[in-house]
Structures are given as structure tokens and as C-alpha cells.
Automatic annotation (TrEMBL):
It comes from the Eukaryota. This is Uncharacterized protein, isoform B. PANTHER family: TRANSMEMBRANE EMP24 DOMAIN-CONTAINING PROTEIN. It is a single-pass membrane protein; Single-pass type I membrane protein. It is found in: Endomembrane system; Membrane.
């Protein structure tokens, strides 16, 4: 009875179906292998996506003109327009910039040609006029490519040499650039003052070094004089001592010298 009560009080025993697998009974090595396989699949996909993003960014940068970030750009062209032809040239202008273009016929025929300008929306903002010189200005550009067309269709036999002058100015960027130049000038002034201080310090150091070299030369000369004096005095003392010792030895030996005689005393 006690055993039955214990079984009733305890949690029921659940037997898994023979065809199912208990998640807690999966081998940890199998889990690691599955995770590694997922990583091996995800990493190449991530690398491919990164490469595609980099290529897209480089393509966008390549499409942008090299002068887009400059505060002002001025271009001067001389083009030859054949008789009965029309040539169009396109210029990119950033939004908010000022666009200016002018043309003049240098030589050829009657010295006149047709000149027209289209804005980025394709609208003709300056209609064709047969004249020797013309210009157009857009103070605040909406941004995009302007089309500058030169028409020589009314001249059937003579080509024209035309000078085209184009400027794109971003005044806000120019003001920022001017402020940077002013800051640079201030920095240059500070740099010049610092360089002057450094130069003065270097000159002082060079003076101290020259004074030290002079003292070194004087001390070296005094050292050589002392060396020669001591060497000469030492050699002379050695010579005097040798002569004195020789004389003393000679007289001492002379003093103890015994003369032998042939006659003996009786």
C-alpha cells in the first residue's frame, strides 16, 4: 500500500514513443557539428554580401565626378563645330550651386552660331539664338546635368571654332573653405611664432655649443702643454738620476779598490 501511494503522489512516468527522439538525449558532438555546418554556410554568404556592397559603393563613387566636392570649378574648352552640325555638352552641377556658362565664336563663317541651355529637368532655359556671344546663369541649381548645345546648322559650308567657358561655384562650401583657410592662416601664424621660438632656442644652443668647443680646445691645448712639460721634466730627472748613480758607483768602487804590490813588507 505504501508503494502504491508513493507512485500515486509522484509525477507520472512518461514513456517516449519509439519513433521519436528526446531533445535532451542528442549527442553534444552532433550539436557542434550542426552549428559548424551552419557557420560554414553563413560565412560565405556574408562575405559575398560585403563584396557586393563594396562594389556598389565603388561604382557610386566612380559615377560621381572628381570635382563634386570642390568649392568651385572653372573649365575652358575650344571646340570645332562642323558645318550643318549641332554638338551638345553636359555638365554636372550639385544642388544649391551656381552654374554659369558662356560661349563665343572665335572664327569661322559669319562669326555666329546658335546657343541653347537645358536644365536637369530637360527644359530649355535659354532658347536658341544666332549670335556671336551668349551666356547663361543659374544662381541656385536644382542639381543634375545641364546640357549646353551649340548649333551650326544654318552654316552649310563653314565650320566654327567656339570657346566655351563653364563655372560651377558652391558658395556655402566656399565660405567653409575660406573659414578653413583663415584657421589655417591662424595656425600658420602660431606655427611661425613657434618656429621663431625654436630657431632662437637653436641659436642659443649653438652659441653654448661653440663656447663649449672653445673651452674644450683651450683645455686640450693646456693638457698637451702639461703633458709635454711633465714628460720633459721626467726625462731630465731620469737622466740626472742615472748620471748621479753612475758617479756614485764609480767613486764608491774607487774607494774600495785595493792595489796589489809585488814587494811584501818584512
Amino acid at each position: 500500500m505504501r508503494a502504491q501511494r508513493k507512485l500515486r503522489i509522484g509525477s507520472p512516468c512518461v514513456h517516449p514513443h519509439p519513433g521519436t527522439t528526446n531533445p535532451t538525449s542528442i549527442n553534444p558532438k552532433m550539436r557542434l557539428t550542426w552549428q559548424r555546418n551552419q557557420l560554414n554556410l553563413i560565412l560565405p554568404i556574408a562575405l559575398i554580401c560585403c563584396c557586393l556592397l563594396i562594389d556598389a559603393t565603388n561604382a557610386q563613387e566612380a559615377q560621381q565626378p572628381w570635382y563634386e566636392n570642390l568649392p568651385a570649378v572653372a573649365m575652358d574648352y575650344k571646340v570645332h563645330i562642323d558645318a550643318g552640325k549641332e554638338d551638345c555638352y553636359h555638365q554636372y552641377v550639385k544642388a544649391g550651386a551656381t552654374f554659369y556658362v558662356s560661349f563665343s565664336v572665335v572664327r569661322g563663317g559669319d562669326g555666329m552660331a546658335g546657343f541653347a541651355v537645358r536644365n536637369p529637368a530637360g527644359e530649355v532655359v535659354k532658347p536658341y539664338q544666332w549670335q556671336a556671344t551668349a551666356d547663361y546663369t543659374d544662381q541656385v541649381s536644382p542639381g543634375g546635368y545641364y546640357s549646353v548645345c551649340i548649333d551650326n546648322q544654318f552654316s552649310r559650308f563653314a565650320g566654327k571654332l567656339v570657346n566655351i567657358y563653364i563655372t560651377v561655384v558652391k558658395y556655402d562650401a566656399w565660405d567653409k573653405y575660406a573659414k578653413e583657410i583663415e584657421q589655417l592662416q591662424l595656425n600658420m601664424q602660431n606655427f611661425t611664432a613657434t618656429i621663431g621660438t625654436v630657431e632662437r632656442n637653436i641659436n642659443d644652443m649653438m652659441g653654448y655649443q661653440a663656447h663649449s668647443r672653445h673651452r674644450e680646445s683651450r683645455d686640450y691645448a693646456l693638457l698637451l702643454d702639461n703633458n709635454s712639460y711633465i714628460q720633459t721634466f721626467s726625462i731630465s730627472q731620469i737622466v740626472v738620476i742615472l748620471i748621479t748613480c753612475s758617479i756614485q758607483v764609480f767613486f764608491v768602487r774607487k774607494l774600495f779598490e785595493v792595489k796589489s804590490s809585488s814587494k811584501s813588507r818584512i
